[in-house]
Amino acid sequence: MNRINTLLGITCALAIAGSLSSCKNKQQDDDIMVEKIIDKPQSKATSMATKTSEGTATWAGNKYAYTIRRGADTSLDDVENHDSLFHDNRIELTITRSDGSQFFSQTFTKNSFSGLLRKDAKETGVFLSMAYDKSDSNHLYFVASIGSPDESYDDFTLVQLIIDRQGVTSVAAYNPPEPEQ
Length: 181
Prior knowledge:
Elements: H1 2-25, E1 51-59, E2 62-72, E3 79-81, E4 84-86, E5 89-97, E6 102-108, H2 119-124, E7 126-135, E8 139-147, E9 156-164, E10 169-173
Antiparallel strand pairs: 1-2, 2-5, 3-4, 5-6, 7-8, 8-9, 9-10
């Protein structure tokens, strides 16, 4: 029994000595673990420059001022055109009377003209621009362009936006006037 107590005492002493020496030799780890935050990949699409144009139109004997504002809209689907990715645009048209009161204000996208566009213009075209065309006794006419934003391509479709005296819009295929001879 004495021998067993002696062996137990030695075993306990070795165990205590081993645990004390392992505590003494343990080094502090200076590395701090931090969760890596990965940002959502940003769109690699290119935006056309924001553009504003202004002008006046005489309509039924009265002067009207118009403002056309084009800007990229990242909430719209990006468009792949000639192996490049582009943001599509939104165009806001505002028309005011000569007294400064607003007659018309509406924002358009290429979907505003989708019934007049070929499949390829819908899929690969960007809403490029809008411009005043003409007026008659009952309507103001604007021309909208949908196509390639890459200026090295002559690839676009023209459509007509028609606004009546009540501010109701309609769209039609654009037929340019015959050149005068």
